[in-house]
User: Fold Transmembrane 9 superfamily member from Homarus americanus.
Amino acid sequence: MWYSTILLTLLVQISWGFYVPGVAPVEFKRKDSVEVKAVKMTSSQTQLPYEYYSLQFCRPRNGTIYKSENLGEVLRGDRIVNTPYDVKMAVDTPCRLVCHQMSKPIVWTQQEAKEVADRIRHEYYVHLLVDNLPCATKFMMVETQEQVYERGYKLGYIYDNKVYINNHLKFILSYHTDNDLDFRVVRFEVEESSVDISELKGTDDRCSFPDKHNPQEVKESGTTNILFTYSVEWQQSNVRWASRWDIYLQMTDVQIHWFSIVNSLVVVFFLSGILTMIMIRTLRRDIARYNADESLEETLEESGWKLVHGDVFRPPRYPKLFSALVGSGVQIFCMALITIILAMFGMLSPASRGALMTAGILLYVFMGLIAGYMSGRLYRTLRGQQWKSAAFWTATLYPAFVFVTGFFLNFFIWGKRSSGAVPFTTMMALLSLWVCILVPLTFIGYYFGFRKQPYEHPVRTNQIPRQVPEQVWYMHPMLCLLTAGVLPFGAMFIELFFIFSAIWENQFYYLFGFLFLVFLILVISCGQISVVMVYFQLCGEDYHWWWRSLITSGGSAVYVAAYSIFYLTTKLEITEFVPLLLYFGYTTIMVMTFWLLTGTIGFYAAYIFIRNIYGAVKID
Assistant:
């Protein structure tokens, strides 16, 4: 009973993760209240998000109310909360004080001012929402003189080694209407400015300041008196509600993605040419000669891959570990493929906050059934007997690595009081998903997979292993690893740049159609390069291809790790210890995940290839 209750609860969470309140069109009447909510503060220099009220900002008079969030939003560090800004639909508002009187400004202590100054020095951006639409700041590109937008607004700036805070916000809200009765918000821009408290004039709830004014300095050596103000300007727009995300999703040049696709296709065609040469000019000729009535001595001199037919399907060392890693790779592959397809059809758009991460985690959990089945059948093929412990390895090896790494990093995030720290209740919920759902599903799949007939091999394995001759220098495992990883990485490194930008620079990634094509090209290229490397290995009479195919085809993960270091040094400005630790910790998880994914693809491609070529020859 308790197990079915947990499953039902998780199914509700899945459906809720795909749909986030506020995504559906919201119609306002004139003078209706439009709520401005705060999400968090982010910086690409620290990678540590903070909730809005971690600084001493104005709070609503009726108290702070936090929005209930899904799993993905919590893991992203979002803490959506109401703000004291009073905005009416289609009603312009002149300069107004936020939450205090002109004669009673906010007084920041020296410690509070230092905290604000530290955030400004690390270039923190504040993210606000109106009708689930994030605020954007408009700026001009110097090279092209083109107006572009970036998410959020700057908390402040540094000038002449002094710290200034943007304490006045001008909300420029655009609306669309067809009948002048129903209004929909289609754009949310913010123009920030810094206004010294001595420049502000007016009554308790009204204010004004000259066009040329002094900025508001944050005094780190003493107390700081500050007033927060805002104004609202509404503009009618022809942009419809369905297109209101275009300014955020057009921050990247689509032509670059097309260049990435063309580059990837060139790589695939290059590999296909090599494979065609091997299959048609070499394999077909070898198979024809082996099947003909030629002398054995001549056959032995022709090639070496047939000589190891009695050992090529000999089970590898550590079959339990091998099948567990392959099963985890299958699980990651299924999760990634389904998630990309769902996102490609718009079910996990950026408007559905946190839905992408929520869907990915829950799909990974439920893909444990497939992982257990594939791993169980492979383990039986490798003549394994201890299927229960093998199933336990499959269900715990990779998740334990991710959980332990994340739990270790979480201590440092807690120490920084960042909203990116996973709450204890969420940590326990993730642990429950792992123990109560993933592990049982993996055991169920393993049970049926282990009971299934093992994969049939076209040749029998000799009882006595054949001695492997000394290999040529270019077949060294490390050299093969680096060689095999170049082409798959070259097929996807441009798209990897945009993925890294979305993760580390808080940008949107939405071109999932391109990502799906790149994913297919990555699968094809990994399979092709694995076949080529295994064929060369067998021609050298080295039949230890099981682990080699898994490790070598995952060689592109080495280049992903190297690219992450290059990206850190060229694009990010992380200098502190904790942000660096977080960057390398999360990058290690991504690299390991990518290695399992590509390694599993390469193994199955090599396995299918070997079964086919040895099944095509006549062997006594």
